[in-house]
Design brief:
By secondary structure, the protein is mainly α. It has helices at residues 21-39, 42-69, 75-97, 104-135.
Amino acid sequence: MNPSLSPDPMHWHDGLLLGYTPMDAVHEEFVQCIAAIQRGTDAELAGLMAALERHAVQHFEEENHWMVSTEFPARDCHIDEHAAVLKSVRDVRALAEAGDLSECRRLAQALADWFPGHADYLDSALAAWMCKRTHGGKPVVIRRKLDLRSTETGQVGE
């Protein structure tokens, strides 16, 4: 059974690019983890939740390290948000391991709804900060075939 809450799984698109390559790469992996849960069968969900947790730990530790090591001014709120998301992922993964799959797809949809705003507001500032420190300027992002009407949902229209 695959009762996805979303008719279309989240997918990576240029509207999510921030212009700092290491961050964009880890964000693309995050989107792939969410989509895998949205598409996954019930039999796959516990493993997919474990994979999401592993990814989220690495993803958030990397961004947190960038913020702390470079003394990013807005780091406290950003780090707190990562901690809250990771707690939710761990809680739902534990439920899935115990056989309760009821929250897996709901969490995946909540993360699909949350991520574009998080990237736009918190991660974009960090990407600009990191580009300034690394390259001496603002990030440059080239977007292909972007339908701005649908970037808030993480879905790109035709």
